Amino acid sequence: MAAPESVPTSPTAPKAYKSPPRRSAPWQADRPGEVVDGGQPTGPRLGSPGPDQGYALKLVHQFDGRIHLADGEDIHDVEAGGVAVAMRRSSLFGRAPVIHDLTIAFTVFGFLDKNAPDELVAMRRKLFEGVHIPVHYVEMRTLVDSVDEDALRMTPQRVTAAYQTDWRPQLNTSA
Fold first, then answer.
1. pTM, to two decimals
2. Which residues have CB under 8 Å from 133's CB, separation 6+?
């Protein structure tokens, strides 16, 4: 039976490293999908790129049993929306998501409050509806963009205090 050239023919044959051929020119960002010069584009519904953002999907399960849903709300939508808001917050700081990002995401929408205001519940029900389904990208971006950036830059304690005082300034419903 034939074996690849990389497999020694004899068990006692010496194994040596062979480096790849040297490149004569430096690497260039010349492929069509490369982001160059102006950097990552920003604007409404363009997303918030950041490192290791998928880690928020692991962290969201630490909220199992702590999220309070109203009638007609789906836990999958709430988790997907919370993760997306958390990823936006973490990207503002140029880091991977941490538990505080999710805490803020769920706090601004009243999911950690057993007695969330009826007006907020009605608003969040419309914002979160169906966002866990990938074809609802525009709705997901609208949800994420509805959270005020200043609120995302606050500490979890300040967001909680602001939510208890008045939840409205933390959300921009015209996003």
1. 0.76
2. none
